[in-house]
């Protein structure tokens, strides 16, 4: 099968196309014929070991010293169940599925074997594989943040970085929960964020979100603390009494199967729209990583696996 191998930690050029044997599913596993995957910011962090120096040594022990121990990166997929291992009864051959695995990776490939009990659910029939691959990463992280922040109907939520993978999902999910959403983004993404359900959109190049009299119950940083440190410091200026501030970098999120089921239901009913910036073929994975690493994508960058 055709795969992309991360040969060492470094720039996008360390990713190389390579043919490897097609895996066979083990006990309790299913083999998935991957139709689409996505290049996430987490993939770029792993590929470049682009972490705070304090955590880089620990990351080498966890991921691999000179190169990722699992050389095939990628944690998101949409595709078809191709084979079922012994004892796996949750899915059948031919089922269309989508999901995420933050630990096994392996989706920069034509096939992967995952445990049947992982974060894997049936793909909504109204979505293409490319659209389905744009949901799990940002959707699950956003939903986890909103649950931890206890976002509820009627609350006022400010989402900083509203146009990225996590941000576009957070805007839609907050609106679906009945919250009043303010999104903060760059000028080219104002209309996109408004179309996703934000009642107010702040163009950070024209005005500061901390100006004015608005007060929010939740300040959600969907960017990450390295890029939003200044905004997080200003969050106290806009929080209402008892308001909560939360960042996508605050601890390891607990992602659950029922959360992915909820995202699938919302997408099936049209309440969650996948946002795709660009679609690359697997052969252009280096360009896809270079684009995502530039930090200016809208929503998700998807890879079609031929």
How would you sum up this structure, described in words?
With 306 residues, the chain is of the alpha/beta class. The protein has 2 domains: 165 residues, Medium-chain alcohol dehydrogenases, catalytic domain (Quinone Oxidoreductase, Chain A, domain 1), CATH 3.90.180; 109 residues, NAD(P)-binding Rossmann-like Domain (Rossmann fold, 3-Layer(aba) Sandwich), CATH 3.40.50. The protein contains 9 helices and 14 strands. Strands 3, 4, 5, 6, 7, 13 and 14 form a 7-stranded mixed sheet that branches. A 5-stranded parallel sheet has the order 10-9-8-11-12, with helices on both faces. Strands 1-2 form a two-stranded antiparallel ribbon. Helix 4 crosses helix 5. The longest helix has 14 residues. It starts with a strand and ends with a strand.
Weakly predicted, low-confidence segments = none
For the record, the CATH class of the largest domain is Alpha Beta
Shape: globular
Range of strand content: 25-35%
Give the terminus-to-terminus CA distance.
Answer: 11 Å
Number of discrete domains: 2
Evaluate the radius of gyration.
19 Å
What is the quaternary state of this protein?
Answer: single chain
Averaging pLDDT over every residue, what do you get?
A: 95
Q: What is the total tally of β strands?
A: 14
The CATH level-2 architecture of the largest domain is identified as Alpha-Beta Complex
CATH topology name of the largest domain:
Quinone Oxidoreductase, Chain A, domain 1
Number of helices: 9
CATH superfamily of the largest domain: Medium-chain alcohol dehydrogenases, catalytic domain
**Which sequence of SSEs, written as H and E, runs from N to C?**
EEEHHEEEEHHEHEHEEHEHEHE
Structural category is: alpha/beta
Helix content: 25-40%
Largest sheet: 7 strands, mixed
């Amino acid at each position: 099968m055709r795969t992309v191998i991360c040969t060492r930690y470094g720039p996008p050029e360390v990713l190389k196309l390579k043919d490897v044997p097609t895996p066979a599913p083990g006990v309790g596993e299913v083999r998935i014929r991957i139709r689409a995957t996505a290049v996430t910011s987490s993939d770029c962090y792993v590929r470049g070991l682009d972490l705070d120096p304090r955590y880089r040594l620990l990351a080498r022990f966890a991921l691999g010293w000179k190169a990722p121990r699992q050389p095939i990166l990628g944690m998101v997929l949409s595709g078809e169940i191709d084979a079922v291992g012994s004892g796996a009864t949750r899915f059948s051959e031919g089922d269309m599925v989508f999901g995420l695995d933050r630990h096994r990776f392996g989706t920069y490939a034509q096939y992967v074997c995952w445990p049947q009990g992982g974060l894997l659910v049936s793909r909504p029939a109204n979505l293409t594989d490319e659209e389905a691959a744009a949901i799990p990463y940002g959707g699950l992280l956003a939903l986890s943040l909103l649950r931890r922040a206890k976002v509820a109907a009627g609350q006022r939520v400010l989402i900083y970085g509203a146009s990225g993978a996590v941000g576009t999902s957070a805007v839609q999910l907050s609106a679906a929960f009945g919250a009043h959403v303010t999104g903060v983004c760059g000028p080219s993404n104002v209309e996109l964020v408004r179309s996703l359900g934000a009642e107010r959109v702040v163009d950070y190049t024209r005005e500061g979100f901390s100006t004015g009299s608005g007060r929010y119950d939740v300040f959600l940083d969907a960017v990450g603390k390295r890029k939003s440190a200044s905004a997080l410091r200003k969050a106290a200026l806009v929080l209402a009494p008892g308001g909560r501030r939360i960042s996508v970098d605050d601890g390891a999120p607990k992602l659950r199967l029922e959360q992915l089921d909820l995202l699938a239901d919302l997408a099936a009913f049209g309440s969650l729209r996948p946002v795709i910036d660009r679609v690359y073929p697997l052969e252009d994975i280096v360009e896809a990583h270079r684009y995502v690493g530039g930090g200016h994508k809208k929503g998700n960058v998807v890879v079609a696996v031929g």
